[in-house]
Amino acid sequence: MRILPLLVMLVLSFTALSQTMGNANQQVYNTSTAANVHNQNPVSNNTNNNKRVELPINLYHSNVNLQAEILYNAKPSTYLAIFATTQEGEKAEDVDRNMNQRIETFKRGLTEAGISSSQVFVDFISLMPKYEMQVEKKRFSKTANEVPIGFQLKKNIHISFTDGKVLDKIISAATAAEIYDLAKVEVSMSDSKKALAECREEAMKIIKEKTKVFADLGIKTTPLSIGDNFETYYPSENYESYVAAAYDYSQVQSQQQFKVGKIAVKYANKDRTVFYSRLPYDQFDTVINPDFIEPPIQIHYKLMVQYQIENIELKTKRDADEERNRQHNEVVRKDELRIRELQAQNPPKTCCDKN
Question: What is the pTM of this model?
Answer without folding.
Answer: 0.67
